[in-house]
Automatic annotation (TrEMBL):
Subcellular location, record wording: Nucleus, Nucleolus
Record flagged with keyword Isomerase: no
Family listed: Belongs to the EBP2 family.
Any Pfam family matching the protein: Ebp2
Name used for this protein in its record: Uncharacterized protein
InterPro entries for this protein: Ebp2 (IPR008610)
Length: 245
C-alpha cells in the first residue's frame, strides 16, 4: 500500500498541492450548545414514546451523524486557518484587490438574451395577474347581480304571500303595498339627494339670516333687541303737530 502511494505521489511543491494534515478546530460554544439541545431533544423523544427503542447518545445514529458533520466542519475550519497562514508566509495573496476587474465569462449578446428573457417573463407574469384581477372582478359583479336578483325575488315572493293572506282574510288592509312604494321612493330620493335631504344651497342667506344672528335685528336708541321702530301714520303725525302748537 505504501509502495503504491509512493508510486503515484506527485513530487511537486505544496503551493501546487495545497494538501493539509491537521487536527480539528476547537468546538465553538454555540456548536456545543446545539449538540446539547439535540441530545436533550432525542432524550425527550425517547421518554415520550415507548415504542421507540432507547439509544445511548454515544450509539445514537442521529446524533452520530450530527457529530460527524461537526467533525467535517471543524476539520475544514482548521485547514483554512492554517492554509491561509502558509500562503501568506509564501507571499501569496488571498484577497482580490479593490481595483481588480475580471472579464465576464458570458458575452454581451448572451446577456442581452438573458435580459430579454427575464423581461418577457416579467411581462407575462404582469399580464397573468391582470387577467386574474379581471376574472375576480367579473366574478364579483356576477355575484352582486345574483344577490340583487335573489333579493328582488324574495321581496316579490313576500309581497305575493301577503296578497294571498289578504285575499283569504288574514290581513285587513293593503298597507304593506304603500309601505313598499314609500320605501322605493325613499331609496330613489336618497340615491339622488343623499341621506337627510338635499344639501345643495343650504348655506345661502335668506330673509331671516340676513337680519342678523338668530333672525333678530339690532334695536335703536336703547330699544329691546329685535324690536323695529315703525314710523307713525299721517293722522298721528298731524295730531302731534297740533298739540305742539
Amino acid at each position: 500500500m505504501n509502495a503504491k502511494c509512493t508510486e503515484f505521489r506527485l513530487n511537486i511543491d505544496w503551493i501546487e498541492r495545497l494538501d493539509m494534515i491537521n487536527e480539528p478546530a476547537p468546538l465553538a460554544p454555540e456548536m456545543a450548545m446545539q449538540l446539547e439541545k439535540e441530545e436533550q431533544k432525542r432524550a425527550n423523544m425517547f421518554a415520550g414514546n415507548a415504542k421507540l427503542k432507547y439509544e445511548e447518545p454515544s450509539k445514537d445514529p442521529v446524533l452520530n451523524d450530527f457529530k460527524r458533520e461537526m467533525q467535517f466542519h471543524r476539520q475544514a475550519q482548521a485547514a483554512v486557518v492554517e492554509g491561509i497562514q502558509k500562503l501568506h508566509a509564501l507571499g501569496v495573496t488571498t484577497k482580490r484587490p479593490d481595483d481588480y476587474f475580471a472579464e465576464m465569462a458570458k458575452t454581451d449578446e448572451h446577456m442581452q438574451k438573458v435580459r430579454k428573457h427575464l423581461l418577457a417573463k416579467q411581462e407575462g407574469q404582469a399580464k397573468s395577474e391582470k387577467v386574474k384581477q379581471i376574472r375576480e372582478q367579473r366574478k364579483m359583479g356576477k355575484k352582486m347581480q345574483q344577490q340583487a336578483r335573489l333579493r328582488k325575488e324574495a321581496e316579490k315572493k313576500e309581497t305575493m304571500d301577503k296578497l294571498k293572506k289578504f285575499r283569504k282574510g288574514k290581513l285587513k288592509n293593503l298597507d304593506f303595498l304603500e309601505d313598499s312604494k314609500t320605501e322605493t321612493k325613499r331609496k330613489a330620493k336618497n340615491k339622488k339627494f343623499g341621506f337627510g335631504g338635499r344639501k345643495k344651497g343650504k348655506k345661502r342667506n335668506d330673509r331671516m339670516s340676513s337680519m342678523g344672528i338668530g333672525g333678530k335685528s339690532k334695536g335703536k336708541m336703547g330699544n329691546r333687541p329685535g324690536k323695529v321702530t315703525k314710523r307713525p301714520g299721517k293722522a298721528q303725525r298731524n295730531r302731534s303737530k297740533s298739540r305742539n302748537k
